Amino acid sequence: MHNYTLLERALFFTSSFNFEKLRDEVNGKTVLITGASSGIGKELAYLLADTTAHLILVARREESMNVMKVEIEKASASVTVFPVDLRNEEELKRLLAFLHQLSDGLDVVVSNAGISINRPLAQSLDRYHDFTRTMALNYFAPVQLLLSLIPVLEKKNGHIINVSTINALLLPIPYWAAYQASKTAFDTWLRSAEPELKIKNISTTSIYLPLVKTPMIEPTIAYQTSSAMSPVHVAEIIGRALYTKRKVYKPWWLIFGQGASVIFRAPLSFIIPKLIKKKERERDSV
Q: Cα–Cα distances in Å, from 11 out to 134, 163, 229, 258?
């Protein structure tokens, strides 16, 4: 079961996954995956290898994606590698120009690219660029991408899948201001746009994830021993969303976290500053 510990099996319950239904859904379709060179995007690409989908892999690491292309095309899917830094305006425009000239159009956009920053405000006073680069990738890039692609997706009754975070639905926590603000911004944008997309026959899915074992969590030492989802499992969740058109995925226990965020908001606003102050004193005394 995705090499989970007993605790992880309980936290990250595995729903049924039917590869035949996925294959029937995506065969012959064109699927764009951002953040495709590692983690969730990479595992999703490999999951779709035994279909006849055309996969457009987008990320900065061209070499990694070229290796993926060779391996995936040993099966039945076809792959186009498109190296892009989505924060770069000119590179993003080049990607959009390519997508608009696709002869078969575009059926699915999996918005998976993202960046995470864990840093106290005291260490961010001269690092405004932490916030601009996080917003650039987690918010502005997917918004610009989708605004351009909505007419293309409308022609194919397309599907937008946003790989989000449970933090977008919970009480904000210290040290994650840049990350949470940017992920919440795009989550809110997509949920706000969903009714307008629906009348254009464009489906949307928001996938709210807890910690996932990807390269993005490696800089945070505490996360290296924490319970976390397998990116293979997440790829299957996305695959299931492709054929069910499920609007939302979130862990079964998130409802309790959301309830606690409301019920305990006031006491937490009193307790958390004290915990931060204690932590800073301990650090300064070392």
A: 28, 19, 9, 16
Tokens 């933090």 belong to residue? 167
What was the pLDDT predicted at 46? Answer: 98
Q: Give the confidence band of 1 by pLDDT, cuts at 50, 70, 90.
A: low
- DSSP 8-state code for residue 192: H
Give this prediction's pTM. Answer: 0.93
- Over the stretch 119-140, which tens digit does the pLDDT of each residue have? 998 899 999 999 999 999 999 9
For 24, 56, 216, 265, the CA distances from 244, given in Å and listed in that order, are 12, 22, 28, 35
Q: Catalytic residue numbers?
A: 179
Two structure tokens written together for 219? 């800089």
Length of the chain: 286
- Number of H helices and E strands in the chain, helices first, is 11, 7
